[in-house]
Amino acid sequence: MRIWTSLTSRARDQAGALSPHLACSTCAAELGVSGASLLLTAGRNTLELASTTSQRVRELEELQARAGEGPGIDALESGWPILAEDLASTRSRRRWPTFAAEAVSRGVHAMFSLPLALGAVPLGVFDLVHDTPGELEHTQLLDALLYADTALALAIDVRSGITAPLGVGVDPGAEPALWRSEVHQAIDMVANQLGVTVVEALVRLRAYAFDHQLTLVDAGRAVVEHRIPAGRVAAEISSAAGGEPGSR
Q: How far apart are the C-alpha atoms of 215 and 82, rounded to whole Å?
């Protein structure tokens, strides 16, 4: 609840909307790091940038992609957080020889990469970067994980064509929808039925839920219980959008 309150407060102060960029920038400011970015899977072991706090961080993510190495790539492949507290260290230079050297030359000395997933299926990575070496405190890491999940949820809403109202909060005792097993199962069913990526299946299920005034969990449960055929999720959204989910 505290994370959501911070986001809505900053959105009001800036007269803006809730967005993945706001989640990235608020996270960086609250944790005292130099920048943050959200990347989503675009295929097998491929990431695309969904949001970032600056051009400098964008260029760092492009460097990871070109080099084919870095904390973010390792986090995606392993499914575990990769906390590179000192990119100038011998360990970092051995692990990521090209990326670490280039990052340090650009003034980036630490990078913390948090994987995003639905069960065992990777969805993306949330990266934090800092100009000075050092570790994240335990409470900072926990907050970063919450910001990562929030940024992911907002990115899915953006792709679904949904604008989150500032007045809508969350139940502080509720389990996040993306952690629920029925949502995982439904997204897998939609992805297999349509032959799309897991991220695209999540976008379509979220758009369907929004259009029918359902929660993501309720829509997922209906798909799993075959009360909503997986193919119908895409058919209705495509019809309403003129062929493209999220363009309503």
A: 32
